[in-house]
Every structure is written in structure tokens, then in C-alpha cells.
Design brief:
It is built from twelve helices and eight strands. By secondary structure, the chain is an alpha/beta fold. Belongs to the HpcH/HpaI aldolase family.
């Protein structure tokens, strides 16, 4: 099972670097198009994205069929949301709005089968996206093969980040810079404030010091490169809801002759 999880394989290498993209718009074909562009993982966003439960199931299956890891961001740290995402066949979950180490422990309990946690067993779909294993193999391997990723984006989570990073079963501390900036009084108005950059580095260090990986959400390749060079591991490069209007507007400017330095896209 672990061999089928492309994101986990990348995170477990010595450098541990992986790049992903964020899906906010629904559609299995849309998910498939994104997955075929070379990323290690695609995050299906059911928190802020326009993606319903059944659409999540279809996106997860479409992404996994290309050999890319489907990751699902659920809307809140709720056990039933964890169950629905993992039962769809997700290779991991991203969970927003944590505050304390107890929140992280509660999440692990929801995400793991007994004796580690309390996840219920019975999905007929999950096995198909994790190497086509049997239901028994899935039950026996899921605790180790699937990733539990927590977002550090609240003031309280930042204050407790070292304790959160110590929680067994948490694999990645993932930063949402815009919410984190808002919550520490340093909203993003352009370049990140130095206090926000310091908070980002504190989270990265807490993860690494406790044997975990660090992730961050970016809105373009330049920012993704910066954080890769800074030592982050799970890096979201771009979201479809950002890339699509940006590309369309740029192409129109080029067509009208108002953009003089346009380059021919390579994708």
C-alpha cells in the first residue's frame, strides 16, 4: 500500500520534497487534467472549494488512476468528515483550524483504525485508489500508508506548534499563510510581513525537530521555489481557481498586443 502513495514516497526520501496543486473546481475530467501535469499530489479542497461529497469521491478516483496521490482537505476537524475523505480512497487528509495538541490527538483517533484510533471500516471504494489491494490488506496497512496533515493557521496553533508536532500519527504540519497572517495580526497585503515569515520558519523548524515534514500553500512557482529552498517538503504550487483566470487574462492581454513580454506556454 505504501508504494502506491506517491506523496508518502516523496516525503520519505532524504530530501522529502514534493510539489502539488490545489483543486477547488469540481469534475473528474478536471481532476484528471490537473493530475496529468506532473505534480506528485492534487489536493481536493472541500473546505473552500466548490466540491461536494460525491464530487470528491469522483475526483479522488480520477487522480489516483493517473498514479498521482489524491489528498482531501476536509472542512473541519470532524470525525465524520475524516471518515468520508479516507473512505473515498484519499491517500491523506489536510485538516484546517486546529488549535491544540489535543485537537491533533483527536484527529489521529479519527483517522486511524484500532488499536491506534477509532476509524470505522467498511468502505467499498478506498482500496481502488491505493494499489487495488484487498479489503483485508487495506485494513492492515492503512494506518501506515495514509497521511495525516494538519494546518497550522491559527494564533493558538502557532503558540502550541511544538506540542502539536510531537503528536504521534501526525505526518505533516501544513501552513496556510493567509489565515495565519490574519490570525497573528499580520494580514497579507503584498509581501509577507517579517513576523509572518518568522512564524512560518518557526512552524517548519517545529516539524523538522520532531521528525515530521513541513508543508505550505503557495500561489505560484516563484513562491514555491522560495520555500523549497528554505527546506519545506510538501509544497502546493498553484490552485486551479488562481491559475485558470490568470492564464485566461494573460492570454487575452497577449492577443490584444498589450503584453510585450509574453512567452509561449510549455504546458
Amino acid at each position: 500500500m505504501q508504494a502506491a502513495n506517491r506523496l508518502q514516497r516523496a516525503l520519505r526520501t532524504e530530501r522529502g520534497l514534493s510539489f502539488g496543486a490545489w483543486q477547488m473546481l469540481p469534475g473528474a475530467n478536471h481532476a484528471r487534467f490537473m493530475a496529468r501535469t506532473g505534480y506528485d499530489w492534487i489536493c481536493v479542497d472541500t473546505e473552500h472549494g466548490n466540491i461536494a461529497d460525491w464530487q470528491m469521491h469522483e475526483a479522488v478516483a480520477a487522480i489516483a488512476a493517473t498514479g498521482v496521490s489524491p489528498i482531501v482537505r476536509i472542512a473541519a476537524n470532524e470525525g465524520w468528515m475524516v471518515k468520508r475523505a479516507l473512505d473515498s480512497g484519499a491517500h491523506g487528509i489536510v485538516v484546517p483550524l486546529l488549535y491544540t495538541a489535543d485537537d491533533a490527538r483527536r484527529l489521529v483517533e479519527s483517522a486511524k483504525f484500532p488499536p491506534v484510533g477509532r476509524r470505522g471500516f467498511g468502505s467499498p471504494f478506498a482500496m481502488g485508489s491505493i494499489g487495488g489491494v484487498s479489503s483485508l490488506e487495506y485494513l492492515q496497512g492503512a494506518n501506515d500508508a495514509l497521511l495525516t496533515i494538519v494546518q497550522i493557521e491559527t494564533k493558538e496553533a502557532l503558540e502550541n506548534v511544538e506540542e502539536i508536532a510531537k503528536v504521534p500519527g501526525i505526518d505533516v504540519l501544513f501552513i496556510g499563510p493567509w489565515d495565519l497572517g490574519n490570525n497573528i495580526g499580520r494580514p497579507v497585503m503584498g509581501a509577507f510581513h517579517e513576523d509572518l515569515e518568522a512564524a512560518i520558519e518557526r512552524i517548519r523548524k517545529a516539524a523538522v525537530d520532531n521528525g515530521k515534514r513541513a508543508g505550505i500553500y503557495c500561489v505560484g512557482g516563484a513562491a514555491a521555489k522560495k520555500y523549497a529552498d528554505q527546506g519545506f517538503h510538501m509544497i502546493s504550487v498553484v490552485a486551479d481557481a488562481v491559475a485558470l483566470p490568470t492564464f485566461l487574462a494573460d492570454a487575452l492581454e497577449t492577443a490584444k498586443g498589450s503584453k510585450t513580454d509574453a512567452a509561449v506556454p510549455t504546458y
